[in-house]
Design goal:
With 196 residues, the protein is α+β, with helices and mostly antiparallel strands. It is 26% helix and 28% strand. Strands 2-3-4-7-8 form a five-stranded antiparallel beta sheet, with helices on both faces. Removes the formyl group from the N-terminal Met of newly synthesized proteins. Requires at least a dipeptide for an efficient rate of reaction. N-terminal L-methionine is a prerequisite for activity but the enzyme has broad specificity at other positions.
Length: 196
Amino acid sequence: MILPIVAYGDPVLKKKGEEIPENYPELPTLIENMFETMYGAYGVGLAAPQVGLAIRMFVIDPAPFAEDESISEEEKNTLLNLKKVFINPQITEETGEEWAFNEGCLSIPDVREDVKRKPTISITYQDENFNTHTEEYSGLAARVIQHEYDHIEGILFTDKLSPFKRRLVKRKLENISKGKIRTEYRMRFPKLKKTK
């Protein structure tokens, strides 16, 4: 089932996610719905807060990035085989020289900006069967994971922009939070307070 994606301005996007217990209700269905929602919106990652749940889980499938001709065969293979669920993840290390990449977000449609991140990460997480893994990722794979990980920490990519860049996108962000945007996928907009 395709779920509505929570739009910028909803408080759930600024909450730090809670750990998920093994007996979390309907977890396999939630995971399936999140993948379906992500694919339906042509995304490469989706975090639980983006479907209104302040829990520590995200799904990724960065295969579309493998079409970029500037990346190595090794990185292509990684991206094509990285459909994955991350439950209760913890990034333990980020290393290397920061690099900029133009990022977007399904919760913040029509806003794309360069964001600097470190190129290599180590992450410990549980899979859908609650088996624990510790893995290292680099390049675009690491970036997708870092972006989704930020979501479960209550951080949006726009929080990483310079004050100048934030001013430039302020109007767009306000319009998104007011529902003044069209997308090809379902969105849930924040409940606006009525002014007297």
